[in-house]
Amino acid sequence: QVQLAESGGGLVQAGGSLRLSCTASVFTFSRAVMGWYRQAPGKQRELVAKITGGGSSNYADSVRGRFTISRGRNTVYLQMDNLRPEDTAVYYCNLVDTGANNYWGRGTQVTVSS
Hints:
Strand content: over 45%
Radius of gyration: 13 Å
Helix content: under 10%
Mean pLDDT: 94
Low-confidence stretches: none
Number of helices: 0
């Protein structure tokens, strides 16, 4: 059973930075696509960024140039710089394995004050 454990959320002022981490308990982590999604109150969950096993990444237009996704041995990171109040949301880690199965973390709250 795949388990994803997120950390790093919190409260920050606009213009500040946070770094989210997600550790996966999977043997084939290196072949999975990892991503970060977010869901603000009253809105649908949306893709923030994702990264393939080969290191290719893509970003939502709203965060490109401010957020950076990267991955280590069994962890994926989201460095968030120049945060804005509209970035406030619950951030979820996602993993898609080689069988196209989706797994989700429990989420971590990010709150950006103006």
